[in-house]
């Protein structure tokens, strides 16, 4: 059965990619909130924020990318939930296909959809004056971090997608994630935060991921920071994958 | 005898609710077997266990020679399930749904298989439309068409004609008969007694977690004496048999 894993995942990926291309609005709506924050912070609050960098757009973009992914993955939970409700999930489960293909197709679709949203946001930032001297290697490193982060959050989204009782429950889990960047170095440097908040901000994953991306864009030495960022991504990925698979196994047996 | 489906002592509870309390039946190869029961009798539960979607608490189910608990992958290769609620992809077109299933069954020429089935289920004109625009009957026909792909030897149909108009119903019946005539074994559940009467070679009634009768239509009718009327002899309909056996207060079995 596993011999068909790639073929089956391919067929199911084609299916859910059609869902995306037939509702391009989901990619757009994913980008609306991050773009609003980008506009708001760059043109309204940005002037009052001292970041120590010459361009606030440059400072802000990495955090906005994190926010884009955090809001985009709720659609993955939503699509998975609809499959479970509609009975098509059971049809797949009763067919002789590689069983994990059903989940992998959703995960890969989430990756593609979120990367599209990220590209849209980067294009808007470029229009707003975002500039980076980063070379190909740095851009690839940024892409790598964003992909890992998206995978980690997507597997997180799979859990409510499989277990939620209502459609709202399936997507509500994303709200705290969307706001995590606010208590990080994404909008303002952590130096000015009061003690306990600062301690939280400096030790939560968003800060290290944002700092790593920012340094890559600015051609600064990333130091050990990038390893902390990668460790967070891989760590979250492993934990969420394990929990998602456990939830899946409970569902299908 | 070649019994394609063998069910022995099947039990299943949800929390303290005992849905199945030892279900036994067999279905011969190439025959149509109807499982009758009121709402909540456990018909869907039986079908889900036999199609490997649910684990029984006790008892065995063997489908096409494979144990549903021990060899679920082999069972899935032998069956096709049309669930109680149409399992179609609303966003894809009818044709895309069929092509998808054909590919997932690793068949060559998925496009031709899809076109043939569209034709056979009078969906050719609607084939390029999204399923979201289909009527309930069209959706159900597509659903059944998807289940026929790959000619599995065993087909489970859970209330295949619920919500269909009489015409669509007759079309589904014709397809089911055609399948059985080609050697496919069909297990169908229904609440429509005439459906069982029309289609099934054998009929079993599931009530309070057990099969309370199992036989051919003629055998079932013999369970009740023909009602003597003054001039003519009135044969009991299957409905009479069902209601007498299940009891008049069968509205809510629990
Ligand atoms: N996942 C579940 N959790 C708890 N109870 C369940 C679950 N699934 C089914 N039941 C209960 O089990 C009983 C049998 O359900 P089942 O769906 O098998 O009946 P059915 O004969 O198919 O009914 P219907 O004709 O309405 O489709 C019902 O009382 C139902 O409420
Ligand atoms: Mg049912």
What is the strand and helix layout of this fold?
The complex is a heterodimer of chains A (253) and B (254).
Chain A: H1 5-21, H2 25-45, H3 56-72, H4 74-86, H5 88-93, H6 101-127, H7 136-163, H8 167-172, H9 174-179, H10 195-203, H11 205-217, H12 225-252
Helix pairs in contact in A: 1-6, 2-3, 2-6, 3-6, 3-7, 3-11, 4-6, 4-7, 6-7, 7-11, 7-12, 11-12
Chain B: E1 3-14, E2 17-28, E3 32-36, H1 43-50, E4 58-63, E5 66-67, H2 72-78, E6 79-82, H3 94-104, H4 110-120, H5 136-148, E7 154-158, H6 166-181, E8 185-190, H7 193-199, E9 202-207, E10 210-215, H8 217-222, E11 227-228, E12 233-234, H9 238-246
Helix pairs in contact in B: 3-4, 3-5
The complex binds adenosine-5'-triphosphate (ATP) and magnesium ion.
- Average of per-residue pLDDT values of chain B: 88
Q: What is the count of distinct domains of chain A? A: 1
Classification by helices and strands of chain A: mainly alpha
Number of extended strands of chain B: 12
Please state the CA-atom Rg of chain A, rounded to the nearest Å: 19 Å
Strand order of the largest sheet of chain B: 6-7-8-3-9-10
CATH arch. level architecture of one domain in chain B: 3-Layer(aba) Sandwich
SSE order of chain A, one letter for each helix or strand = HHHHHHHHHHHH
Fraction of residues in helix of chain B: 25-40%
As a percent range, the share of strand residues of chain A is under 5%
| Biggest sheet descriptor of chain B | 6 strands, mixed
| CATH hierarchy, class of one domain in chain B | Alpha Beta
Q: Show unreliable segments of chain B.
A: 250-254
Largest sheet of chain A: none
Distance between the termini of chain B: 37 Å
